[in-house]
Recover the amino acids of this structure.
């Protein structure tokens, strides 16, 4: 990027410099070399390890990549196959259920916990820290822990059910296709409730206290106070948390892979685990087909993000 | 979930009609609230405590009674896991990969964030948008081809390869958080520094980094926790036992010694201890870091 010697390069440099620098003269103006000094390393990493891999995945999706040295062009075949793939649709269904229901659990639990702390229960500082702890644990630790909690013979869940005389309800929670997905969703909510709690608490503390006091004077019951005052006022925060969790759940992999590997009979398969399985864990090694799934899912996730942004565009986002 | 719902009652109890019934119902509601709080605390904390007790009990003891308090604390299990079961190797792999990735991503991210926050140049917002947008990408879109790239450049199965992938994974969020913070540093500070003859790089090194330290510390903690716990990229990009990070090591150990739950619990504790130690010292900062970007 430093001084080029030839005339053509100098002209190019001038053009680039004029294109890349702001028209008005102020102290925030910077020359191209200065900008690149700061920006180049990050852009280089981005280009090599994000942009290029994304493009290469698109490229791969039109090939059979059976071994890394050679590949065979197959056009849109993989995409046609994806839409006929029953396992893929099972994975989409599970991921959709998880993405829609999971965030409700997370956000509602987080809001309730935040309300407890806001109401001033004793030891609230300690509780805030204690309830947040699961957020910090890795999915491997959380997953193994909950595999044991759900264990049929000696797991805590079945142990409690037997202790209160509900033996009939004890299940192989992760072994039964009817319960496996729900069990994973509960575990995921266990991990993330503390996160939503902290965000809700921050939002609660930023509410004007007069509104709550007015509701108090109006003899407003706790339920109405919650549904008519608190939830509407926190709505932007709750919505934000929901969208954040929704997008996170579209990508869910770790917990599923550790707890069930997508089983039993695809009842907990998510799109992420299916792509991983087809790419690295299937007996037919082909990177092309899973790339096609990844591309399809990429557009689904990005589509949802764009949709949410258009739907709930906020003023501060438009200040570009 | 259900255990937390009674918690709704007390905060907003306001019934002025009958003082006796108010008092009674308030006590009841407070009792309900306290019960909910206690139940949720048990629900959140007991699994962890359970793993803690298992980590110092032998598998035979655990099989006899899964929920007993340890009679004798078998601390030697930590030595066995550390030395004989390769957890020392996994621990140092994790440490080397994560610490260097966090250091590099902090520097690169801060430089880029400073540039985007401070300088007017055409394409500024475009670059910002490009860097930031990859936050929402599902990981699979780069996972498979990163595997190919690392194999081609002989970085597959190496800590160096995983480290640079980790740098790229955390770069968008780091730039996003730091840009927002750096943009709020007053311009006067920079103009004064310029008048004092500081170069652009000196301004970054001697003003932005020190002034931005609170935000930088937050991103360091956030990146550390996320990478320390990272599983998907590590499982794809490492297969060699010598290169495994802690999450992969524990997961592999669970696969190989499925019956030895006592030792698996010990390994889990080894992975959790650095996070707990960090948490003990910086709980506020950690919570801030993990929720940064979500709290407005």
């Amino acid at each position: 990027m430093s001084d080029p010697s030839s005339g053509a390069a100098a002209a190019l440099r001038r053009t680039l410099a004029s294109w890349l620098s702001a028209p008005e003269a102020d102290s925030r103006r910077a020359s191209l070399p200065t900008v690149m000094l700061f920006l180049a390393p990050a852009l280089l990493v981005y280009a090599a390890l994000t942009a290029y891999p994304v493009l290469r995945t698109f490229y791969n999706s039109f090939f059979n990549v059976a071994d890394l040295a050679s590949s065979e062009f197959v056009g849109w075949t993989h995409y046609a196959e994806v839409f006929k793939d029953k396992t893929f649709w099972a994975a989409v269904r599970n991921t959709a259920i998880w993405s829609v229901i999971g965030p409700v659990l997370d956000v509602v639990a987080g809001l309730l916990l935040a309300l407890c702390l806001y109401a001033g229960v004793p030891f609230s500082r300690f509780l805030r820290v204690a309830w947040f702890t699961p957020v910090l644990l890795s999915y491997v630790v959380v997953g193994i822990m909950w595999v044991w909690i759900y264990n049929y013979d000696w797991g805590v869940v079945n142990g409690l059910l037997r202790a209160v005389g509900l033996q009939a309800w004890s299940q192989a929670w992760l072994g039964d296709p009817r319960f496996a997905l729900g069990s994973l969703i509960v575990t995921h909510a266990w991990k993330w409730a503390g996160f939503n709690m902290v965000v809700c608490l921050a939002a609660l503390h930023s509410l004007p206290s007069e509104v709550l006091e007015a509701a108090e004077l109006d003899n407003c019951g706790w339920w109405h106070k919650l549904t008519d005052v608190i939830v509407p006022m926190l709505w932007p925060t709750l919505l934000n948390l929901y969208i954040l969790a929704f997008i996170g759940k579209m990508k869910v992999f770790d917990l599923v892979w550790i707890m069930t590997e997508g089983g039993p009979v695809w009842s907990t398969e998510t799109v992420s685990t299916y792509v991983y399985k087809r790419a690295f864990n299937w007996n037919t090694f082909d990177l092309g087909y899973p790339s096609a799934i990844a591309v399809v899912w990429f557009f689904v996730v990005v589509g949802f993000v764009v949709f949410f942004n258009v739907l709930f565009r906020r003023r501060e986002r438009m200040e570009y | 979930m259900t255990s937390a719902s009674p918690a709704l009652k007390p905060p907003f109890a306001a019934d002025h009609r009958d003082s006796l019934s108010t008092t009674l119902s308030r006590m009841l509601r407070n009792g309900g609230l306290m019960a909910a709080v206690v139940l949720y605390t048990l629900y959140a904390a007991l699994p962890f405590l359970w793993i803690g007790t298992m980590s110092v009990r032998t598998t035979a003891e655990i099989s006899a009674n899964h929920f007993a308090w340890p009679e004798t604390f078998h601390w030697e299990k930590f030595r066995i896991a550390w030395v004989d079961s390769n957890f020392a190797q996994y621990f140092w792999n994790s440490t080397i990969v994560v610490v260097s990735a966090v250091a590099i991503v902090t520097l690169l991210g801060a430089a880029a964030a400073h540039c985007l926050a401070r300088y007017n140049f055409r394409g500024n917002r475009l670059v910002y948008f490009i860097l930031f947008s990859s936050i929402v990408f599902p990981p699979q879109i780069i996972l498979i081809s990163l595997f190919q790239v690392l194999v081609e450049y002989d970085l597959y199965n190496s800590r160096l390869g995983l480290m640079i992938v980790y740098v790229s994974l955390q770069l968008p969020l780091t730039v996003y958080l730091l840009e927002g913070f750096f943009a709020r540093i007053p311009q006067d500070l920079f103009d004064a520094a310029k008048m004092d003859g500081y170069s652009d790089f000196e301004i970054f090194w001697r003003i932005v980094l020190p002034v931005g330290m609170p935000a930088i510390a937050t991103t360091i903690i956030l990146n550390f926790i996320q990478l320390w716990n990272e599983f998907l990229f590590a499982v794809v990009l490492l297969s060699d036992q010598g290169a495994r990070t802690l999450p992969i090591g524990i997961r592999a150990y669970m696969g190989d010694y499925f019956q030895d739950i006592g030792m698996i619990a010990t390994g889990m504790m080894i992975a959790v201890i650095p996070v707990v130690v960090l948490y003990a010292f910086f709980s506020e900062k950690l919570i801030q870091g993990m929720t940064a970007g979500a709290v407005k």
Observations:
- The mean pLDDT of chain A is 85.
- The beta strands of chain A are 63-67, 70-73.
- The first strand of chain A starts at residue 63 and ends at 67.
- Chain A touches chain B through 113 residues (CB under 8 Å).
